[in-house]
Amino acid sequence: MPSPSSFIEQYNLAKSTFQKAIDNNFTVVLCGKGANGKTHLVNEFSKQLNEKQYHHFYMGEYESIEYDYYDKMVIEVNDINYINQMYVSKKHNGFVVINMNKYKYPKYSRLRSGRM
């Protein structure tokens, strides 16, 4: 399968992966710098996430999260290395990492000055 080339194709792939992950009760880690759709994706699925009792976190460089077997989470990080600080129970369901680092919503792809 060829790599998605447009933002819409990339986002739809992330959306499909996200849906499969929550259908299987996996913890989802959304990774990427700003303006790539992480929060928008979570907001699109907010009703399902609430119904399935998912917890939603933003994880920064010096924050840590304890992950228990029964916890279902969506974690947004700017740097994938931040999840190294997580404590994970040996009985966890599993993680799905969606790397959105190369995604860039076209509206936000230029600085206000017009430069990239």
Tally of distinct domains: 1
Per DSSP, the total helix count is 3
Sum up the overall morphology in one term: globular
Summarize the helix and strand pattern as letters: HEHHEEEEE
Query: Can you list the strand order of the major beta sheet?
Result: 2-4-1-6
Mean pLDDT: 80
The number of distinct β-strands equals: 6
Kindly state the percentage of residues in helix.
25-40%
- Main β-sheet description: 4 strands, parallel
Strand content of the residues, in percent? 15-25%
Uncertain runs: none
- The value of Rg in angstroms is 15 Å
Span between N and C termini?
A: 29 Å
Provide the structure class.
alpha/beta
Summarize the structure.
The chain has 116 residues and is of the alpha/beta class. It has helices spanning 7-23, 38-44, 46-51; strands spanning 27-31, 55-59, 66-67, 73-77, 87-88, 95-99.
Give the helix/strand layout.
Layout: H1 7-23, E1 27-31, H2 38-44, H3 46-51, E2 55-59, E3 66-67, E4 73-77, E5 87-88, E6 95-99
Parallel strand pairs: 1-4, 1-6, 2-4, 3-5
Q: Can you give a write-up of this model?
A:
It is a single chain. With 116 residues, the chain is α/β, with parallel strands linked by helices. It has one domain (7-101). It is 26% helix and 21% strand. The chain contains three helices and six strands; from the N terminus they run H-E-H-H-E-E-E-E-E. The protein has helices spanning 7-23, 38-44, 46-51; strands at 27-31, 55-59, 66-67, 73-77, 87-88, 95-99. A four-stranded parallel β-sheet has the order 2-4-1-6, with helices on one face. Strands 3-5 form a two-stranded parallel sheet. The protein is globular.
